[in-house]
Amino acid sequence: MSGDDTRDEGSLNSLPHGAQLAWGLVKPSTRGPKGELSVGKIVEAAVGIADREGLSAVSMSRVASSLGFTTMSLYRYIKSKDDLLMLMTEAVCDIPIPEESEGKGWREQLREYVEACIRLMRAHPWFTDIPIMGVPITPNNLKMVDWPLRILRDLPLSEYEKMSTVLLISGYSRFYGVIMRDMDRAIEAGANPDSFSGLMYGEALRQLVTPESYPALYPIVAAGVYTEDDGNKGEAQDDFDFGLERILDGIELHVSRART
Amino acid sequence: MSGDDTRDEGSLNSLPHGAQLAWGLVKPSTRGPKGELSVGKIVEAAVGIADREGLSAVSMSRVASSLGFTTMSLYRYIKSKDDLLMLMTEAVCDIPIPEESEGKGWREQLREYVEACIRLMRAHPWFTDIPIMGVPITPNNLKMVDWPLRILRDLPLSEYEKMSTVLLISGYSRFYGVIMRDMDRAIEAGANPDSFSGLMYGEALRQLVTPESYPALYPIVAAGVYTEDDGNKGEAQDDFDFGLERILDGIELHVSRART
DNA sequence: AAATAATTGTATATGGTGCATACAGTATAG
DNA sequence: CTATACTGTATGCACCATATACAATTATTT
Fold first, then answer.
1. Using one digit for the tens of pLDDT, what is the confidence trace for B65-98?
2. Proximity of residue B65 CB to strand C below 7 A
3. Distance (Å, rounded) from C-alpha A94 to C-alpha A229?
4. What is the extent of the structural domain holding B169?
């Protein structure tokens, strides 16, 4: 139709339906009644429910009824629940990405990236409940790959190494995103009347983890380091910073080796 | 009863039922008919089903009927499905752990640890489908914490730093375990008649990822590095090794700093 | 040896899930 | 103005985890 149609429809159709929607590849039809619903509204509603009540509260019927429609009406817009989940993550990955080339070094910029990832996962605790179905293939998700790649642009790394590095960094973000989300959840749950749950398993572990069976773990459990009984949120933050700095150190060392 | 009863029943009862079972804290009752079923058999059956057909095939009724019992009979042995999942991971974490103090350095030993973790996750692809419910609290799972701690024993790190390091390493294992499992799955699915799925999304992404919107990602997608179109399993292995070496480098740098 | 109490596996039921299908209504294109 | 394509809906299916009530079984206590 439009002149610049160099598109290979076939390969685009190979994308999951959710991805096709995210890329705006699904042409709105002209015939028939105009839909009162829309993919955007559905995803928005689903994200809202997930934010408020967790991912398990997101069922097709729940989303539909929250919009005042029947369950099945959603399937006019979305092929499966998996597609909805994909679109939820995509919607939430629409975050501002800093401009290129400020005066900051790559370490600083990678820290910002990781921070942004973690912030995203904490703002939407359900984020990491959605399993990774594969390599990112939707626009905003790919922005989240392009961003760190841009940061690495001028480093003396091969393209494979750059991808490896991004995988390393984003994997670390995700892993800690999970941990921090769980911590947030625990704290929320810990605010319950049963506040003694601070120790919870700490005391039990102190009885079960013997120096004979767990020689290296024992002193750590005994000292309360394992269960972090002091309830100090800072500890987890320290863990996180420590690991990140080790990773950045490792990258820096590799880069400096490559330079010589 | 037995003389050495210094146990605080209360705190042990605070453990989830699955953990109590794993630690052998649930006394078998004497009264009543002896059970034909057992927790061990149930978990074994569940693991078998998961290995063969994936975690989604593991339902209470499926497990029960595979053993020739009714669904509800399982609940005589296990309180909830969550407990079953916990016991499944626990069962599978029962792997041989190398003796202490061989001539190997800590880097080498940590590599072995990570390899073992990955091997575990590939042998049981459902492993990472089970969400982490919290810090490990079951015997074999704790062995998987004690092991790397042992490796770090003689390094000049505080206990907090050691825990942070273990978290870093095991988090990396888990992240890559997920990736490799997904890769295995894709290869298995790719063996289907529709074998052209080798490219799958690669071709589509090459159309969608423009140099304007994705300046840093574009060359990588264009070169086929992003989707690893060559189907070479070695690439992912390279990614993995690269990241691991960066992490080990980072730890080494930190240690050498601490030494001075 | 008899009574008691605990524990077994089962049958049935509840309220949920994602989704297939068939359908009546409605707006557009020819 | 008819054919077509699309809308939202209603119904139903197979499945899920789990609660409850129950008859059968067996070890301990009396």
1. 999 999 999 999 999 999 999 999 999 999 999 9
2. no
3. 37
4. 106-193+241-259
